[in-house]
Design goal:
Mean pLDDT: 86
Largest sheet: 6 strands, antiparallel
Radius of gyration: 20 Å
Shape: elongated
Strand content: over 45%
Number of strands: 11
Order of helices and strands: EEHEEEEEEEEE
Low-confidence stretches: 1-15
Length: 180
């Protein structure tokens, strides 16, 4: 455990303080280069939503629930490499706690609608469940990406990808140092 002294104005240490952590989760939604939406509907307007099951438990903080971010008025990019949804914060812990690992995150479903009239495309992808038929557009969660760093700091990333519609939901988990 890392400890730091809390210094008073007169140069003496008042107490030992432990370094803890809190987490922030950001999302980026993109399409693979061979995604049907890029091939058939570039520039189409639409909306997108998904569900994330989140478990972030420690002695100091307990959270379990479903996050349901939704985005409207998004535009399908003309080319691959441009995100459908730019990086957006979807959750952040308020309480500093002991380091006990990363929150557990799973994207469980994704729905989207792009275009209008006869050119409208509806996307509905869910996880595979034991005892049920494989969904028409299966959502593969938990694809681990390489840890990296950006303007927000170092992060761990996980991807959920739809099999047929070829959309990616990238969750970035940022550990933020704090004092307990």
């Amino acid at each position: 455990m890392i400890a730091a002294a809390l210094w008073l104005g007169n140069g003496t240490a008042s107490a030992q303080t432990s370094l803890g952590v809190r987490h922030r989760i950001d999302v980026i939604v993109s399409a693979e280069p061979n995604a049907p939406i890029l091939e058939h509907l570039p520039g189409a307007k639409g909306s997108l939503s998904f569900t994330v099951r989140l478990s972030a438990n420690s002695k100091e903080s307990r959270f379990f629930g479903m996050l349901r971010p939704s985005f409207s008025d998004i535009v399908a990019p003309d080319t691959a490499g441009q995100p459908l949804v730019k990086q957006t914060k979807i959750w952040e812990e308020e309480t500093c706690h002991q380091r006990r690992g990363l929150p557990k995150v799973t994207v469980t479903q994704l729905t989207a609608s792009f275009g209008e009239g006869r050119d409208k495309v509806e996307i509905s992808a869910i996880n595979r469940h034991i005892g049920l038929l494989v969904p028409p557009d299966e959502l593969n969660p938990g694809i681990k990406l390489e840890p990296a760093s950006d303007d927000g700091g170092p992060f761990f990333a996980f991807r959920a990808q739809t099999r047929n519609s070829r959309l990616n939901v990238d969750l970035k988990i940022y550990p933020i140092d704090c004092f307990l």
